[in-house]
Design brief:
Distance between the termini: 36 Å
Number of strands: 0
Order of helices and strands: HHHHH
Shape: globular
CATH superfamily: Flagellar protein FliS
Number of helices: 5
Radius of gyration: 16 Å
Structural class: mainly alpha
Length: 124
């Protein structure tokens, strides 16, 4: 049982020592992971798994939205993106539509990749 504990400790240390930019990247990665798991759930007709993971992705998007600093103009652009993604996740959950999840996943990959490039350019 030491392995799960060691992994949990490693994960906790990774989060506690991450920069704000790295934490944001981790959130994008998490949302992508949960979209992938939700898609897999729909493929297997496991509606509960799909629902649970869509909700997890929504919570991440909602958190990202809540943490925006609206004094910056770019935050308004991110807010529009996050509202759109959240609305689409609700629709995907109601309709159990994998195509909507795939669309959200593509957008999340795009935002994540852009964020990674910003981190690279600013050495964040």
């Amino acid at each position: 049982m030491a392995l799960p504990s060691a992994y949990a400790q490693y994960s906790n240390n990774k989060i506690m020592t991450a920069s704000p930019a790295e934490l944001t990247l981790m959130l994008y990665e998490g949302a992508i992971k949960f979209c992938n798991l939700a898609e897999a759930g729909l493929e297997r007709k496991d509606i509960q798994k799909a629902h649970t993971n869509i909700v997890k992705a929504q919570k991440i998007i909602d958190y990202l939205r809540q943490t925006l600093d609206m004094q910056y103009e770019v935050a308004k652009d991110f807010e529009r993106i996050y509202v759109y993604l959240s609305d689409r996740l609700v629709e995907a959950n109601v309709k159990k539509d994998p195509a909507i999840l795939q669309e959200v996943n593509r957008h999340l990959h795009s935002v994540r990749d852009t964020w990674k490039e910003v981190m690279r350019l600013t050495k964040a």
